[in-house]
Amino acid sequence: MRNIISVSFALLLIAAVNVSAQSDDKAATTNQEENKMIQMLGRFHMKPTGKAEFKEAMMEVRKGTEHEAGSLGIRMFSDTNNPDLLFGYERFKDFTAVEYHRAQAYELALANIVDSTLQEPPKAYVLGPAVANEVVAPRERLVGEDELFVVALFDIKPSQWDRVIAQYEKQILNIRAQDSNISFNVYPVVDNPTQLVAIEWWKSKEAARDFSTTNPLSMETGQVLTESLERPIAEYLHELNELKP
Questions:
Q1: Distance CA 40, CA 240 (A)
Q2: From which domain of life does this come (predicted)?
């Protein structure tokens, strides 16, 4: 009955240890608050008969989390192309804030309906330090109906990892330089050495698609990914709509 807590807690514990160790690494960021911060992306595959109940419980989690002192923001999304998928994106100041969050009544209530409302156990992706310095939009800003928000959950061929990271070190700055881009970040996944999560937010779908098909570096990045991923790029992409409070 408590799948969501057990999965999240185990992964977040790994993240806390990982981030703590990085604080002493000369290659890690010098921003101590970023070193402590824990952020996680959750993927939930709902049963058609359980969607209404699960969404309602998730929105209660969102409402409650916004009032937690240790929360740095929480967002909920539905998948544009799969009505049975829901995503949650949580950011916390540190592991103590996570422990407090997991003990709240709304989080426990959500855990109690996991088995009856989901088709499979929830998947948690604990995000490591961003490939380039993280740039995020203010938590008060919501994704507009005409904007594009995409999450990519990439599985990289082990032999191609360094190549993909090097490519993204160029591409991230290239994307952020575009007036039509709101934010773009790429993160390794804690405890999964071949997985990357890319989160991009654009002012319009048209601007994003035009950029990806005409910008030379963007097209080069697309080719690198085509050669480096375990499956076709499209299978990893999730176009999302933000659920409003």
A1: 16
A2: Bacteria
**Quick one: tokens of 218?**
């963007």
Which is nearest to 195 in space by CA: 35, 57, 11? 11
Confidence grade of residue 136 (pLDDT, cut at 50, 70, 90): confident
Which CATH number does the domain housing residue 102 bear? Answer: 3.30.70.100
Residue-level length of the chain: 245
Full-model pTM: 0.85
Of 16 and 97, the structure prediction assigns the larger pLDDT to 97
Q: Which helix (H) or strand (E) holds 52?
A: helix 51-65
Alpha carbon distance 113, 94 (integer Å): 27
Q: What residues contact residue 152 under an 8 Å CB cut-off, 6+ apart?
A: 196, 197, 198, 199, 200, 233, 236, 237, 238
User: Is residue 133 a part of any domain in this protein?
Assistant: no
